[in-house]
Design goal:
RNA binding; 3 helices; cell wall biogenesis/degradation; about 80 residues; three-stranded mixed beta sheet; single chain; GMP Synthetase, Chain A, domain 3
Length: about 80
């Protein structure tokens, strides 16, 4: 899942070398924290959050077999 988020994010940004994904596992949830260059935050979020919502939808769909909930958080 981490690789999927990384590949999608690198395709969207101008500074792909600064894309990082941290994984935080909790009792009932796995949280992926995507961090990008400050100039690229808007590109990952998109107009009215459409790209971020699409990214979350893809990750949620890919994680159907997981027993825990999956969340994607975008941090700068």
């Amino acid at each position: 899942m981490k690789d999927l988020i990384t590949v999608i994010a690198k395709a969207l940004v101008d500074h792909p070398e600064e894309v990082r994904v941290a994984v935080v596992e909790k009792e009932d949830k796995i949280e992926y924290r995507l961090s990008v260059h400050p100039d690229d935050v808007g590109k990952v979020i998109g107009k009215q959050g459409k790209i971020a919502k699409s990214l979350r939808t893809v990750v949620t769909s890919a994680a159907v077999k997981e027993t825990k909930r999956v969340a994607v958080e975008i941090v700068s």
